[in-house]
Amino acid sequence: MPLSSKSRRAGKSSVADLHEKVARKVVSETLHLKKGESVTVETWNNGLPIALRFVGEARMAGAIPLTLFEDEDAYVFGVKNAPADIRGKMGKHEHGLLAASDAYIFIPNELLEGYARRLTPEEVEAATGYGDSWYDEAEKAGLRGARMSFGFAGRELAKQLGKSLEQIELHQLEATLADFGSIRKAGKELASRLRDNGSGSLTSPGGSHLKFEYERGEHIEDGVVDAKDVAAGHNMTYLPPGFLRKGVKPGSVSGRVKLSPSIGLTGIIGDATLDFEKGRLVKWSSKSSRRILDETIEDQPQDERVMNALTVGLNPLMRYGYGQDRFVAGSIGVAGLSFTGIVRSGTLRAGHSVAVNRGRLATPG
């Protein structure tokens, strides 16, 4: 049944209200923008409405915003027609922009469609070669940044997830309103249990077991970029926030893990079984998504097909099936491959202690 004009107006109003709440939270809590600070808001076509809200909230805080707009059609035309040796290069004006920005808000373009579908793989690789340079410059500048993950979702991904693009965007924005302090507290408690150099294991549904040793170091994505994060080189935070990333010694990983639906490079991997021996991925299979799994894994060199970290979701407002499953409280992510494999309803142990019990964060004690 079509929406009435009154309902459409109400829907637009609710989206606008959500944009305002998220923008205000990002400006005040994530980035702690201060009067007189410079903030750059970069967006593609898909994020322009909320980008304008960020600009307004930044001005209300006394900060000085600048909007950087990347049009997809112009970008594709430029990549296809520019001299090959300047693709993926940062100009001195962009280096200068990063150096002069105190804070940065980035709304990315679609992951599975958009320009990636309109360019050849070689063109995409060449055009995105500036990535390391960008992060090096941001770290050098001590920049505080936020990345809005809903921008990665496009209509193709939404279709595969069985949702509308609007549903995905709204849910991720709502999950951004989670309490950052509670996420930080849960992350610290969890990190204290996953001891450096201690043994760990992951049991996935069906009884598959993966054994490993925890590595030194962890990072909590809590939605806030403070001085400690900047000093550690964690200049950009994901929004919605909410996971702990814990290192794993690659050579210690052995056994089997069964993945729940996970996002690969070219689409949804509906199921997958991964076998590791002495840290190396030696065998993989999928009943429903063999082609996508093969493409995703074979895109990565053999010597890089390792598991070197785990992620554990901490966001109580995030639900599965909205494009960012690793943030769901209790989800377990197998990281280090060219994609993060998600385990729902898994059990994670540190020694004899249970950290995640069948997909739920275990309570202390």
Q: Can you put this structure into words, describing what you see?
A:
This protein has 365 residues and is α+β, with helices and mostly antiparallel strands. It folds into two domains: 5-177, 3-Layer(aba) Sandwich (Thermophilic metalloprotease-like), CATH 3.40.1830.10; 181-361, no CATH class. Helices cover 35% and strands 27% of the residues. Strands 5, 6, 8, 9, 12, 13, 14, 15, 16, 17, 18 and 19 form a twelve-stranded antiparallel β-sheet that branches. The protein has a five-stranded parallel β-sheet with strand order 2-1-3-4-7, with helices on both faces. A hairpin with a 3-residue loop joins strand 5 (199-204) and strand 6. It starts with a helix and ends with a strand. Mean pLDDT is 91; it is low at 1-13.
Number of helices: 12
Separation, N- and C-terminal Cα atoms: 52 Å
Rg from Cα: 21 Å
- Give me the secondary-structure category: alpha+beta
Unreliable spans: 1-13
Work out the oligomeric state of the chains in this entry: single chain
E-strand count? 19
Write the layout of secondary structure elements.
Elements: H1 5-30, E1 38-44, H2 48-60, E2 64-70, H3 72-81, H4 92-100, E3 103-107, H5 115-118, H6 121-127, H7 131-141, E4 144-148, H8 155-161, H9 165-176, H10 180-193, E5 199-204, E6 208-221, H11 227-231, E7 236-239, E8 243-248, E9 254-259, E10 262-263, E11 268-269, E12 272-277, E13 280-285, H12 290-298, E14 309-313, E15 332-335, E16 341-343, E17 347-350, E18 353-357, E19 360-361
Parallel strand pairs: 1-2, 1-3, 3-4, 4-7
Antiparallel strand pairs: 5-6, 5-17, 6-8, 6-9, 8-14, 9-12, 10-11, 12-13, 14-15, 15-16, 17-18, 18-19
Helix pairs in contact: 1-2, 1-9, 4-7
